[in-house]
Amino acid sequence: MEKLLYIDACFRENESRTRKIALPVVEALKNRYDVETINLNDLELIPVMSEEIAKRLGGNPSKESLEWANKVKNADRIVIAAPFWDMSIPSALKVFIELCSIFDVTFTSDDKTCYGLCKCKKLLFITTRGMNIPTGDVREQATSYLKALSTLWNLGELEVIARQNFDYLPAEIIEKEIESAIAEGIEMAKVF
User: Fold this and answer.
1) Which of 16, 50, 95, 103 is 20 to 30 A off residue 166, Cα-Cα?
2) C-alpha atoms less than 13 angstroms from C-alpha of 143 in its C-beta half-sphere
3) pTM, whole model, 2 decimals?
4) Is 60 strand, coil or helix?
5) How far is CA 186 from the centre of its chain?
6) Tell me: the pLDDT tens digits for 70-82?
7) CA 139/CA 21 separation, integer angstroms
8) Packing angle between helix 91-100 and helix 63-74, nearest 10 degrees?
9) 140 with 86: CB under 8 angstroms?
10) Rounded Cα gap, residues 131 and 7, in angstroms
11) d(CA 185, CA 25)
12) Which positions of the chain have pLDDT values less than 70?
């Protein structure tokens, strides 16, 4: 069975509207994939700074980073669930991505360009936004960042399930939006 890596960056945990969409979608994907979850809330993430840079330049990245990077590299599909924060993704998710961006593991280069080493064919990004900012809006930088990352790591086609304006809609409409996003994701799971 192929492997799916689910990266959960929903820090409000069970109160997270993004997670309410993601969990049933990931559950549906278990029919087709062996699913492994990395919950960023469970990790002690330290930004890539001088000590880690020195280790990497010496060919010795941290054990945890190497472990996570290999999970990303070996996944056939990846699902990222992350709410919209400060026009992009939560900082912990950015740190996790930086920690996994290891030369000759998730990407490499020649004398002209860099290219990815991951075998992932599709990346699914599930998100909710408090403001009324649609996917692709200049103020929404998460999707463009993940598209760029996909080209660096070779993660394949990016698909997005997004809902917005959740900080301003009535609760009953938010619930309907969550239900419609779950239905969209379960339908997508059939071909993802």
Assistant:
1) 95
2) 18
3) 0.96
4) coil
5) 18
6) 999 999 999 999 9
7) 23
8) 90
9) no
10) 23
11) 5
12) none
